[in-house]
Structure formats: C-alpha cells, structure tokens
Design brief:
Radius of gyration: 20 Å
Bound molecules: zinc ion
CATH superfamily of the largest domain: NAD(P)-binding Rossmann-like Domain
CATH architecture of the largest domain: 3-Layer(aba) Sandwich
Shape: globular
Number of strands: 14
Length: 335
C-alpha cells in the first residue's frame, strides 16, 4: 500500500477505490503513442490486470512520442505488445500484464474485450474505433475514445446509458479526409495529454462513475485552447439505437488484406465507394503528388506506392507484409 499512498490519500480514491482498481481489468487497444502512456499510468495506478493489443513492431520513428520504448526495442524490431509488456512488468510486477500480438478486428473483437471492466481506445483509425464501439455495445462495456493529430487532441467516454461513438461520428470519414499522423505529424505533448485524460476517465469509471462529465474534450496545445462539447445520444444512431453491428462481421466493413504477388498487397478497409477526384484533392492538400486516371489514383509515400480504386480497394506496392500494407493504408488514407 506504500506504493499507492499518494493515490489512496486522495479523498475520492481511498482504500476502497484502490481495492476497486486492483480488482479491475482494463484492455488497451493499440500500443502506440496513446497506448504506451495509458498502459503505463494504469499499471502504476495498480489496476489489477492490463491487457494490451497491437500487431505492429517498434520502429525508430515511434520513439519521439511512444514512451517506454527504447532504441534497443526498435533495433530488435520487437512486437510492440511484447516490448511494452516487458517494460510494464519492470514497473509494477504485481499487475497482471497480458500482451496480445494480433490484429484487432471483425469477429475477434468481442472475444478479446470480453472480461474487461473498461476498454481504452489507443488506435489511430476509424475502422478500429467503430469496431470497438460495436464490441462494447455488444458486451455492455464502457470505453474511452482518444485521438490526436498535429498539436490537437480529443477524448470522450461512451457508456451503455449514454451516447455511443456513432452518435458522435455516424459514418466513416471519406477516404483521405481523416487526420494522418504519418503525413501531417503529431506532437508528443498532445498524445500524452490525451492518454492522461483517458486514464482519469478509466479511474472514474471504476471508482466513481457519478463523477463522469459526459462531454467530449478537445484541445490544442499549440494554441493553448481547451474546451468541452456536450455529448448527446442520437435517436437515429444505427448502432446503439438500431442494433447494427456491421464492424463485427468477418467480412463487410472489417479490415482485410491479401498478399497478391511479389511485393504487393491488396487492402480493403471501410468505405466501398470512393470519389477519386475528392480523394486526389485531399491527398494533394497533404503534400502528396497524385496521379489520377479514370479508374484509379496513385501516390507514393516513402518506398510504398499506393493505388486506390473507385470501389475502395487499394493496392500497396513495396511490401509483402499484409499488416504493414494495412498500416500504410490506414496511415495515409486516414480511416
Ligand atoms: Zn449511438
């Protein structure tokens, strides 16, 4: 208890609150900038069990904002979930840390989140967030959304009795319309603040649900602005009102990728119709050189070539790795 003495001293935590944290299991989906920070804070706070899910490996470009990872993790190309689990166990050996190296999507989502007390969204794409939303509605679990891009951040909590994520964002953004940290950059201060806010929400959900503010928090650390927007349930919401669970299907809107030859992967994720002209404009505005034909659109990002077709499929050239292709697709097209 000495370890948690400064936390137990808080009147709204106390010994009872600490015991509730110790009896809880939190799943963090994503071990990037948000996930590394939230998992560390949860483990330091004494949450009994922390499950961390990620399919990627540690890279040098992660170290600017993904706390806990080291140059050695990147040199050894360790899976993020395993590298993070090792650091977390060194910080607090009393916490049960469960790393899962896997894609989070489709019909696996419910099984992965089952048994959690709260879920933390630490992903960087809308398809995964829509999947978390569907799975949490199905399991009646609360979850905390977080996102950051540039110097901006956003955070909100969704519970059974209130609005869900699709009350806030009814549909997936058009391809290319979402934020892309890969193209536009992101400040570590922004991601770290989002994760810290998410963990405060998790603690309230576990210890004092009545203390929830029920708003969307938005800020810009560069401008110094911080504000809240009321979060209200949409009576026409297809997910929480209509019972739709599109993102839990094995096919349909879940993410798929196929290795289709030498150094080339076909990816399908999200929207099934793309306005190529609009997408060309969005990508050009992000500084990419776009070549467009009647049926496709072509951009190059680092060593990867991306060809997007009007039906939403994309061919990623320059890799044989389906996970890497999906990562590039999401990072550049922002869904
Ligand atoms: Zn809803």
């Amino acid at each position: 208890m000495e370890r948690y003495s400064r936390q137990i001293a808080l009147p709204f935590v106390g010994k009872d609150g600490q015991a509730k944290l110790g009896a809880s299991k939190v799943t963090v989906v994503g071990c990037g900038a948000l996930g590394t920070v939230s998992a560390e804070l949860l483990v330091r706070a004494g949450v009994g069990s922390v499950q961390i899910v990620d399919r990627d490996i540690v890279e040098l470009s992660n170290l600017q904002r993904q706390l806990l990872y080291t140059e050695r993790d990147a040199a050894e190309r360790l899976p993020k979930a395993l590298a993070l689990a090792a650091h977390l166990k060194a910080i607090n050996s009393a916490v049960e840390v469960q790393p899962v190296v896997a894609d989070f999507g489709g019909n696996k989502a419910v099984a992965l989140l089952s048994g959690s007390t709260v879920v933390v969204d630490a992903t960087d794409n809308y398809v995964t967030r829509f999947t978390i939303n569907d799975a949490c509605l199905e399991l009646k679990l609360p979850w905390v959304y977080g996102g950051a891009s540039g110097s901006r951040g956003m955070m909100a909590t969704f519970r059974e009795e209130g609005a869900c994520f699709r009350c806030l964002f009814s549909e997936l953004p058009a391809l290319g319309a979402g934020d892309s940290c890969e193209l536009e950059g992101v400040l570590a201060s922004a991601t770290t603040i989002v994760a810290a806010l998410q963990v405060a929400e998790v603690m309230k959900l576990i210890i004092a649900p009545n203390a929830m503010h029920g708003c969307v928090l938005e800020f810009d650390v560069w401008k110094g602005s911080f504000h809240t927007i009321p979060l209200e349930r949409d009576d026409r919401c297809p997910a929480c009102k209509g019972g739709q669970r599109l993102f839990l299907a094995d096919d349909g809107l879940s993410q798929t990728s196929f290795v289709c030859g030498r150094n080339s992967v076909l990816v399908r994720s999200g929207p099934s119709e793309v306005n190529l002209g609009a997408l060309a404009g969005l990508l050009a505005a992000k500084g990419l050189e776009v070549k467009q034909t009647k049926y496709s659109l072509r951009v190059e990002v680092k060593e990867r070539e991306i060809i997007v077709f009007a039906d939403g499929r994309a061919l990623i050239n320059g890799t044989n790795d389906a996970h890497e292709a999906l990562r590039v697709y999401q990072a550049v097209l922002g869904v």
